[in-house]
C-alpha cells in the first residue's frame, strides 16, 4: 500500500505513521529521516542540502524531491510505503504523482488527521523540555512529579520558543495557506480519507486502521 499522511503540526502524524507503517509492514518515509540519512551519508544531495541548512535557509524543492525520488526507488519501498511530511504543497503533490507514474505506480490513499487549532495549541504549548537531558514532558498529558523539574535527571524544564502559543498559531496559519489545499487536491483525485485525530493515541490509531481496512482487504 502507498499512503501519504497529512495533517497540521501537533496532529500526531509521527506517532500514527509509526503504528500504521508497522501494521502494514511498509517503510515510514519522512523528509526529516531522508535529510538526516543523506547528510550523515555525505551523499551529493546531502552535501547540497547541508549548504542551505548551514546558512539557515530552506532546502529548495528540487533537492527535497530528488531525495524523495531516490528513497522511493530503494528495495524496501517497492511493495509500499507511508510518506510523512511530503508532499507539503500542491506543486510537490503534482511532482510526486509524476515520479510515481514514471515508476508505473500510484498512491492508494491519503489519510488526513483532522484536529482543530485549539486542540493543537493545547497539545504543543503544554510541552516542556529538560535543559539537561532533553526529555520532553507535558503539563497535562505527561507531567513531571515536581513542576518545572525533570524526573529523569533533575534538570530544569523550559518552554521552547516554537512551543509558545503565538508561534504555534503562526505555524497553523502557514499550514492553512500551504498544506491544507493538499486535502482538496487529493479529494479531487478521489483518494482522501479524513479521520478525527482527537482523543487518546490508541483510539486515533484504531480509527486510522479502520479507515485503511477497505483498501487492504
Query: What is the makeup of the main sheet?
Result: 5 strands, parallel
User: Number of helix segments?
Assistant: 9
Helix and strand run: EHEHHHEHEHEEEHHEH
> Strands across the major sheet, in which order?
2-3-1-4-8
**Share in helix:** 40-55%
The pLDDT mean sits at 92
**Shape verdict:** globular
What are the segments in which pLDDT stays under 50 over at least 5 consecutive residues?
none
Number of strands: 8
Structural classification: alpha/beta
Strand content: 5-15%
What is the gyration radius calculated from CA atoms?
18 Å
End-to-end Cα distance, whole Å, is: 11 Å
Set out the fold topology.
Blueprint: E1 2-6, H1 13-24, E2 28-30, H2 31-40, H3 44-55, H4 61-72, E3 81-84, H5 90-102, E4 109-114, H6 117-125, E5 127-130, E6 136-138, E7 157-158, H7 165-178, H8 181-189, E8 192-196, H9 201-216
Parallel strand pairs: 1-3, 1-4, 2-3, 4-8
Antiparallel strand pairs: 5-6, 5-7
Helix pairs in contact: 1-9, 2-3, 2-4, 6-7
Describe the structure.
This protein is α/β, with parallel strands linked by helices and 217 residues long. The protein is 49% helix and 15% strand. The chain is built from 9 helices and 8 strands. The protein has helices at 13-24, 31-40, 44-55, 61-72, 90-102, 117-125, 165-178, 181-189, 201-216, and strands spanning 2-6, 28-30, 81-84, 109-114, 127-130, 136-138, 157-158, 192-196. The strands form 2 sheets. A 5-stranded parallel beta sheet has the order 2-3-1-4-8, with helices on both faces. Helix 2 packs across helix 4 and helix 6 packs across helix 7 (165-178). The N and C termini lie close together (11 Å). The mean pLDDT is 92.
Amino acid at each position: 500500500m502507498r499512503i501519504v499522511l497529512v495533517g497540521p503540526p501537533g496532529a500526531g502524524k509521527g506517532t500514527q505513521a509509526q503504528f500504521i507503517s508497522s501494521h502494514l509492514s511498509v517503510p515510514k518515509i519522512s523528509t526529516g529521516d531522508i535529510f538526516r540519512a543523506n547528510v550523515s551519508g555525505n551523499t551529493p544531495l546531502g552535501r547540497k542540502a547541508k549548504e542551505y541548512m548551514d546558512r539557515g535557509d530552506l532546502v529548495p524543492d528540487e533537492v527535497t524531491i530528488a531525495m524523495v525520488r531516490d528513497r522511493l526507488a530503494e528495495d524496501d519501498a517497492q511493495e509500499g510505503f507511508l510518506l510523512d511530511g511530503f508532499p507539503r504543497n500542491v506543486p510537490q503533490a503534482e511532482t510526486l504523482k509524476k515520479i510515481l507514474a514514471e515508476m508505473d505506480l500510484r498512491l492508494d490513499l491519503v489519510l488526513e488527521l483532522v484536529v482543530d487549532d485549539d486542540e493543537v495549541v493545547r497539545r504543543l504549548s503544554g510541552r516542556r523540555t529538560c535543559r539537561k537531558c532533553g526529555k520532553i514532558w507535558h503539563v497535562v498529558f505527561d507531567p513531571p512529579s515536581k513542576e518545572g523539574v525533570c524526573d529523569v535527571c533533575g534538570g530544569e524544564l523550559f518552554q521552547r520558543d516554537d512551543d509558545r502559543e503565538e508561534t504555534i498559531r503562526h505555524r497553523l496559519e502557514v499550514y492553512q495557506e500551504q498544506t491544507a489545499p493538499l486535502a482538496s487536491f487529493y479529494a479531487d483525485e478521489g483518494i482522501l480519507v479524513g479521520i478525527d485525530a482527537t482523543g487518546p493515541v490508541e483510539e486515533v490509531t484504531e480509527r486510522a486502521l479502520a479507515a485503511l481496512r477497505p483498501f487492504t482487504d
